[in-house]
Amino acid sequence: MTISDDDLINAAMDARENAYCHYSGYSVGAAIIDDQGHLHVGCNVENAAYPLGNCAEAAAIAAMVLEGGKLIVRIAVAGGSADATPCTPCGGCRQRIHEFADENTVIITMDDSKDWQQYAIAELLPAGFHLD
Q1: Of the listed 17, 46, 57, 123, which one is catalytic?
Q2: Which of 99, 95, 85, 89 is nearest to 13 (CA)?
Q3: Mean pLDDT for the stretch of residues 52-72
Q4: Over the stretch 19-41, which tens digit does the pLDDT of each residue have?
């Protein structure tokens, strides 16, 4: 079964509804299609000790790895305080995505005009690195 971009975006939007964001009020959901064609989702989970919170992208990546996925083929990120608004991955998550991406990985986010746009990881993190 092929997962469309619309399905991927909807999965991220649905995951966003389960975010635990009592401190910032900013909920984020992420959905990944991995190299096996499987869907993995995550949402942000905040903590009173802010550095201990988890980003939605990190949660979705952890779910992918748990299920045996090795490569992010496509990832959608949806965030906002009420309705979904423009939300690109933070710097740390850009590096997390880079760890499991290749030159064909697609990152889908909403832009300032509220349209969904596609990016390559090199566009969002031009100096990402791997430790080989």
Answers
A1: 57
A2: 85
A3: 97
A4: 999 999 999 999 999 999 999 99
Mean pLDDT computed over 87-92? 94
Q: Which residues contact 79 (CB under 8 A, 6 or more apart)?
A: 16, 26, 27, 28, 29, 44, 56, 85, 87
* CA–CA distance, 115 with 54 (Å, rounded to integer): 26
Please report which residue ranges of the chain form alpha helices under DSSP H.
5-16, 56-66, 91-99, 121-124
Going from the C-alpha of 117 to that of each of 53, 65, 94, 131, the distances in angstroms are: 27, 26, 16, 29
Q: How confident is the prediction for the chain on average, in pLDDT?
A: 95
The reply to whether 67 belongs to the active site is: no
CATH 3.40.50.300 fits 5-124, yes or no: no
In the block, residue with structure tokens 């566009």:
123
List the structure tokens of 43.
């949402």
Burial environment of residue 71 by CB neighbours within 10 A (0 to 12, 13 to 18, 19 or more): middle
Using CA atoms, how far apart are residues 22 and 46, in angstroms rounded to an integer? 7
Domain boundaries, the chain: 5-124
Are 36 and 1 contacting, i.e. CB atoms less than 8 angstroms apart? Answer: no
